[in-house]
Amino acid sequence: MKKIVRHYSSVIVIIAILFIWQWSSKLLSIPKWLLPAPTDILNEAVNGWNTYTHHLVSTTYLSIGGFVIGVSVGLLVAVILHLLPIVRQAVYPLLILSQNIPIIVLAPLLVIWFGFGVLPKLIIITLVCFFPIVVATLDGFRQTSPELLHYMQMAGATKGQLFRKLEFPHALPAIFSGVKIAATYSVMGAVISEWLGANKGIGVYMTLAQSSFRTDRVFVAIGFIMVLCLIFFAIILTLEKVLLKGRMHTNG
Length: 252
Prior knowledge:
The structure is a single chain. The chain is built from 11 helices and no strands. It folds into 2 domains: 1-30; 36-251, MetI-like fold (Orthogonal Bundle), CATH 1.10.3720.10. The protein has helices spanning 2-7, 9-27, 38-47, 49-83, 85-98, 103-114, 118-142, 146-154, 159-195, 202-211, 215-251.
């Protein structure tokens, strides 16, 4: 029994919260527009499938596109900053300062500069995903074993060989940590970008639901955002296990 509770404690807590939520909504007669019961939300999620399918698909594609661009740019910038210490000293403080600017503030400017198309939305997601990738990757490079680095330098390895054979492989766990964070951030960035000007997407669906006091649909949107984040996280986690396991077997 203790093993079951330990392994499924999160599931038990979630079920308990849903039960209390459902019981309180019915017992206290809370209006549906204020706080719908979980069964009302589930009912809307099932019966309203045709009303939000295209919104869900749009947000998914937008999140994936922005995530791929953000990860690619983040890795490229991290590699450049690592290989060029002078550039890192000049640019890295600016990267830190850039994170003090809320993305919701930059978003209207991007709409003014680039219009209401896909480009400003991809830029928003890229900016959201960019920073954790850069920071995690640079931390991974710094964690390279100095003994192995010194040994390979003594063996005559070039800077490129050091990077390909030692620094980058050893930074993979840290890189994947940043990628997992960016994967969840990409969905958030997509929804924020849709709030600022779009004709479809979970962000649009949520805005329409809020303006019409369809709180059940707002919770449906929140649920799908959470599910998308979990799916992206699970995919990256699986990929991490496969790649790192293969690297360990290769090293062994």
